[in-house]
Amino acid sequence: MAVLPQTARRAAGIKDGARTTARATPYLFVLPYILVFLLFRLGPSLAGLGISLTNWQAVGSPQWVGLRNFEAMLLRDTVFGVALRNTLVFSVITVPVLLVMGLMLALFLNQRMRGRAVGRVAVFTPYVVMSTVVGVVWTWILDKDFGLLNAYTGVATPWLVSERFALAGIILATVWWTVGYNMVLFLAGLQDIPEELYEAARIDGANTVNAFRFVTLPMLAPTMFVVLMLTIINSFQIFDQVYVMTSGGPGTATLTLVQYIYTQSFQYQKFGYGSAIAVVLFLILVVVAIFQTRAYRRGLEGVS
Amino acid sequence: MSKRTLSRIAWYAVLVVVIVLALAPIAWMLTTSLKPESEIISTGIQWIPQTFTLEHFQSILNRYPMAQWTLNSLIVSTAATLLVLLLDSLAGYAFARMQFRGRGILFTIILSMLFVPIQITVVPLFILFSRMGLTDTYWAMILPAGANVTGVFLMRQFFLSVPAELEEAARIDGASSLRIWWSVVLPLARPALTAVAILTFLSTWNSFFWPLIVTRTDAARTLPVGIAQFLSLRPGMVQGQQSIGQSMAGAALAAFLPIIVFVVLQRYFIEGIARSGIKG
Predict the structure, then answer these.
(1) Which of A24, A63, A264, A302 has the most CB atoms within 10 Å of its CB?
(2) Does residue B255 sit at the A interface (CB-CB below 8 Å)?
(3) Residues in chain B within 8 Å Cβ distance of A109
């Protein structure tokens, strides 16, 4: 469609100068964004990749060390191993919980009932509270002696102060904080499903369970894909709550990859090593994305 | 009772549980902030304070420049949102509507950055802003926010979904591309612009990792970074002078504004977020 003015111009025999301006126009439109993008996103990403191959330590000049940072990280740095494991454990628990709970809440609050709007607003409200506030509030709720949760359960669980329960405490806070976001995405997906499909299913004698299985779930697959991808990306980058609630402790019980990047890069000034950990995080996300996209494609083929 | 009535009652019972679970932590934060310290450290569950007090709010405001942090956050988030709206509506429009060499590859490169965690960029960014003498300034937080990817993507998706007839008509009338973008395209794009504005504002407002790194003083420190200083609560740490009541008062002050704004503008929030999940 956008070709029209150019051809029209040519047909009208407009001079070359005018045509050059027309050809430059798209670049002028994208230029401001591209400049900012190059300077503050793409450029720094590539630079980070480069720095990960050096032993730069803030002072002095960076020395090229090839893959030695990665070698040290994967073979000798046990703390890195702990951070990686904690991040994986956190994600493996949090992602399915956020997915299933988000979907269940969306299904529940999609029923045509009075009061569902209030429910939606309530479930989404925690998400507009900033992460560090969530951290501060949940540290208090999970307090061993005076916390609200232990007061109700009657068990003095040492949530954030013991290696055993600290990660669980952070998971609880995170689920409370972000489940509303997933719910809203699922609600949008549910509302895109045409009502006729359900009617057709009903005429075919399908009950609620069957309608869910054969209409809702397949129709929701694209939404599911997006939500899963976003949730995974966010889980692997968990930092804020940990920083506030335990700052990685007790010991290294809740140390995560991003927390480790932060400590190495900006507390020990090991720019090279910190960047190398960030590169590993990037590689993990890429692998997850590739696997997920493949599984999704295969799933689509299976349906059709 | 009929089966239908029963299932209605069950639905409302679940609704009440859901609402209570979602809001209880916020309510507990408020209650705690209004109790005297002696009442806070008591084992019973007291949802309504026996004695109301505003002392924690007073002392937290004396202790920390919360108003300054809030102002910093507001300035940074507003500026970042305006910047993103300008850059992304221009670029998104071009990517959707105009033919130019390199369009496909450029857009692919931009989208691929969705999978590149910002943690890779923080060391180079920190050095860049240090060299420019801009660490601990608003600029250091606003400019990187302008490079966001979702906004461009959402704007492009939107422009792909609306018919181009109005623009063509304006073009035949001899309007320039910039003119068309400003007076025809932007008014049409209001829903998409609102969505991008809300998403950008929310993510900048909540942004923590980068502001934590790049700010040093209260002159630039944003609210999330300021709040993170309320750490004396942290288990295993030596109890500072700051009380639990003060931390909760500070948290309540920081949570107050976004919650009010959200409740007032909830429809736009939910539409905006829903849009961010639109599959590409």
Answers:
(1) A264
(2) yes
(3) 18
| Cβ pairs A/B, distance under 8 A | 300
Q: Classify domain B59-276 at the CATH superfamily level.
A: MetI-like (1.10.3720.10)
Who contacts A50 (Cβ-Cβ below 8 Å, separation ≥6)?
A: none
Per-residue three-class SS string for B76-121: HHHHHHHHHHHHHHHHHHHHHHCCCCCHHHHHHHHHHHHHCCHHHC
User: Which domains occur in chain A, in start order?
Assistant: 3-51 (no CATH), 68-303 (1.10.3720.10)
- Please say whether the beta carbons of A244 and B231 come within 8 A: yes
As a whole number of angstroms, the distance between CA A160 and CA A144 comes to 8
Consecutive 10-residue averages of pLDDT for chain A (304 residues): 46 47 85 97 97 90 91 94 97 97 96 92 94 94 90 90 94 97 93 89 88 90 91 95 90 95 94 96 94 86 58
- Spell out, as residue ranges, where chain B has pLDDT lower than 70: 1, 43, 231-242, 277-280
Q: Flag whether residue B205 sits within 8 Å of chain A, measured between CB atoms.
A: yes
Q: Over the stretch A57-114, which tens digit does the pLDDT of each residue have?
A: 988 888 899 999 999 999 999 999 999 999 999 999 999 999 999 999 999 999 999 9
